[in-house]
Recover the amino acids of this structure.
C-alpha cells in the first residue's frame, strides 16, 4: 500500500484515498476540508495524535468517522518538511 514517503491517505471507514497534491500545509488542509466538509476554519483535533500499529489499526478505523494518516520515514527529507 505505501510505496514512497511521505504518503498521506484519507480514510472514511475502510475506504481510503491517496493524497496526490502539493506537499504543503495549505494544500493538504484544503484537500482534507473538501473531504470532510469543514467550514473555512479547520477545527483542532478532538483527541491526541495516534501512532498506528498492526495491533491497533483495525480498532482505530472502527472508532473514527474519518481521519488522515501520514506514513513517513524519519530519514526522509520530504517527510521532515511536513
Amino acid at each position: 500500500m505505501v510505496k514512497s514517503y511521505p504518503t498521506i491517505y484519507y480514510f472514511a471507514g475502510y475506504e481510503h484515498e491517496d493524497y496526490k497534491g502539493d506537499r504543503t500545509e495549505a494544500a493538504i488542509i484544503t484537500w482534507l476540508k473538501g473531504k470532510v466538509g469543514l467550514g473555512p476554519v479547520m477545527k483542532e483535533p478532538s483527541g491526541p495524535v495516534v501512532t498506528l500499529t498492526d495491533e491497533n489499526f483495525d480498532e482505530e478505523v472502527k472508532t473514527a468517522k474519518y481521519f488522515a494518516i501520514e506514513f513517513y520515514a524519519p530519514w526522509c527529507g520530504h517527510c521532515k518538511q511536513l
In short: The chain has a mean pLDDT of 75.
